[in-house]
Design a protein that fits this description.
Blueprint (H helix, E strand, L loop, with lengths): L3 E10 L5 E9 L5 E8 L16 H6 L3 E6 L16 H13 L4 E10 L1 H11 L5 E7 L11 E2 L2 E2 L1 H15 L9 H12 L1 H6 L9 H4 L1 H8 L5 H4 L14 E8 L3 H14 L4 E9 L6 E2 L2 E2 L11 H13 L9 E5 L4 E5 L8 E8 L12 E3 L10 E5 L35 E4 L7 E15 L5 E9 L5 E10 L18 E14 L4 E7 L25 E6 L7 E7 L2
Parallel strand pairs: 3-4, 3-5, 5-6, 6-9, 9-10, 10-13
Antiparallel strand pairs: 1-2, 2-4, 7-8, 11-12, 13-14, 15-16, 15-25, 17-24, 18-23, 19-22, 19-24, 19-25, 20-21, 20-23
Helix pairs in contact: 2-3, 4-5
Length: about 575
């Protein structure tokens, strides 16, 4: 440990002449040490305060590192024009190599950061800068189409709009913003009236947003996983990543689905060892309490050993340390314990299918929907409901971020499950506990009378006291059922098979608990309601209802697939 020297507003030139500015934290004794780069669009003066899964720059400098905290291109102190994601790869490369060339750096560099800072981390690592030795992407995604702006082909209305508006609004803090002041006024009004803004039609005309942030218009125009997104998609080619990484995520984090995809994809590529830590956290919540759950003292990130693992990883790859981290360290909710595994899902987990059943009346938790390990009979009646985009199912819990969208985490779903447009399939009370760890997937056979629609699914733990606690959820836009790269209209009233990715979880269903699966067609304002017209959703002004049927017979067995651990 030692004193820290902080150098403010250090110029870092990019290859095209744009100057970015950094604050550099390094040992005050002038020691030549490894460098750690962090690139942020949220103002380097704020740093990473309040996030207990990331050590502060000062602490890292005390431990013998030089930390370079940079405002990304076009944000706060740095020059240039900001377009989310587009310049982060090359600018990250240039920043890493600049850092390695400084007299106070020994030439070995790590890069790290959470959320969008995780995107700057991933995109820089993809460029393979020669001085990069390791990376720590935290609570971040593998794909800025699927899992950031969209998911399963549906626009992430709450996050994509409010996060984007916040980025655009911050530009007005710059004296050189060059934007029409009228845009600032309309953008401020849209942010202050967020619930009305998110419900307004058409989406593309939310007050002043598209004018102040032309990249948001691009996001709406590119509503499939096309070349626009593939050019900036880390998961497009995992073979391009050559350094060890420590991934950190949360079961209720908005980017948790991408965190585990990055770990699994990079592990499969085999270019460098990967480790992942998954805790019971949301994007901005790291306490032991979240929603209806108390995760115990080690559920809090501050007492979960994350910072220790972080420091161990850096020492291993930047200072010649010898201790390696386990490939997977994950928190089992319900059991409230940390476990390790060699892979994901854990090698001792086995796939378990739970099939949907009913006599045609699974509507709401009061209905006759059942979930069993037995496949359906040859003939079972379908379940039917009306999905009205003007009466969407409200968001309650899950991997949300902004308060205007809803509180994150494992929330009680009883009010949601009272609706007739939510189908509920419930197991018998468990005679023995069931611990799951791995991906959660729903295979759904269904019909709609619309040319396009959405299908949503939610995994729920029903407690003996009646609380219905959400664990994880997902969505698929029907026209993207075969591929996210191109929409194919639905043939009305013709059965089709859909796969709904509910991300990953690790949870222990206690004895006497029920496993429940919810099926519906909306989750608002987390996702933009599908207008059911087949026309571009961003410009639609006249949505229509759709009659939905969920099928579960011998020829079309709809099911929930979990990964069960031995007890």
């Amino acid at each position: 440990m030692g004193n820290v020297l902080i150098e403010k507003h250090v110029e870092i030139p990019m290859r095209d002449g744009v100057i970015t500015y950094a604050d550099v934290y390094r040992p005050a004794d002038g020691a030549v040490v490894p460098g750690i780069v962090t690139r942020t669009p949220y103002d380097k003066e704020v740093g990473l305060s309040g996030l207990p899964v990331v050590p502060s720059p000062q602490k890292l400098a005390e431990r013998g590192y030089a930390v370079v905290m940079v405002d990304t291109r076009g944000r706060f102190s740095s020059q240039g024009e900001f377009t989310p994601f587009v310049h982060e790869g090359q600018d990250g490369y240039d920043t890493i190599e600049w850092t390695a060339a400084q007299p106070w750096c020994d030439g070995n560099i790590g890069i790290q950061g959470p959320s969008y800072l995780g995107a700057t981390t991933m995109l820089a690592a993809r460029e393979r800068p020669p001085s990069l030795r390791c990376a720590i992407p935290i609570i971040t995604a593998d794909d800025y189409y699927d899992g950031w702006v969209y998911q399963g082909g549906a626009y992430q209305l709450g996050f994509g709009t409010l996060w984007g508006m916040g980025l655009a609004a911050a530009q007005y803090l710059r004296t050189d913003h060059g934007l029409d002041p009228a845009y600032a006024e309309s953008l401020t009004a849209a942010l202050q009236g967020a619930p009305a803004s998110l419900a307004a039609l058409p989406l593309e005309r939310i007050g002043g947003f598209a004018d102040a942030a032309p990249w948001w218009r691009d996001w709406l125009d590119h509503d499939a996983q096309d070349d626009y997104w593939n050019a900036i998609r880390p998961s497009a080619d995992y073979d391009r990543f050559e350094v060890p990484m420590l991934h950190v995520g949360g079961w209720f984090d908005i980017f948790g689905i991408g965190t585990m995809r990055n770990f699994r994809g990079l592990t499969a590529a085999g270019r460098a060892p990967q480790s992942v830590i998954m805790g019971p956290w949301a994007h901005t919540s790291y306490d032991r309490y979240l929603g209806e759950m108390n995760f115990g003292p080690t559920g809090a990130a501050a007492f979960a050993g994350v910072i220790g693992a972080y420091n161990q990883f850096l020492d291993r790859h930047l200072k010649g340390g010898t201790a390696d981290l386990p490939a997977v360290r994950y928190f089992v909710m319900g059991a409230n314990e940390w476990r390790t595994a060699e892979a994901w899902p854990p090698p001792d987990a086995t796939a378990r299918a739970f099939y949907l059943h009913s006599a045609g009346g699974a509507n709401s938790a009061r209905g006759d929907g059942a979930l069993t390990g037995d496949g359906p009979a040859t003939s079972e009646p379908a379940d039917r409901y009306l999905y009205d985009p003007l009466r969407p199912v409200p968001t309650e819990g899950g991997p949300t971020l902004q308060a205007q969208v809803g509180l994150p985490g494992p929330r009680d779903q009883r009010a949601i499950e009272a609706r007739d447009d939510v189908l509920c399939y419930t197991s018998e009370p468990l005679a023995q506990p069931l611990t799951i760890a791995g991906p959660v997937t729903v295979t759904l056979w269904a019909t709609t009378d619309a040319p396009d629609t959405d299908w949503t699914a939610k995994l729920v733990d029903v407690l003996p006291d009646g609380r219905a606690v959400s664990l994880t959820d997902g969505i698929i836009r029907a026209s993207f059922r075969d591929s996210l790269s191109a929409q194919v209209p639905v043939t009305p009233n013709e059965p089709a098979q859909y796969t709904i990715d509910l991300a990953n979880t690790a949870h222990r269903f206690g004895r006497g608990h029920h496993i429940r699966l919810e099926i519906s067609s909306s989750n608002f304002p987390r996702f933009q309601p599908n207008p059911n017209t087949g026309r571009p959703a961003a410009s639609e002004t006249a949505p229509r209802p759709a009659v939905q049927h969920v099928l579960h017979d011998g020829d079309r067995p709809s099911c929930l697939e979990l990964w069960a651990l031995p007890e």
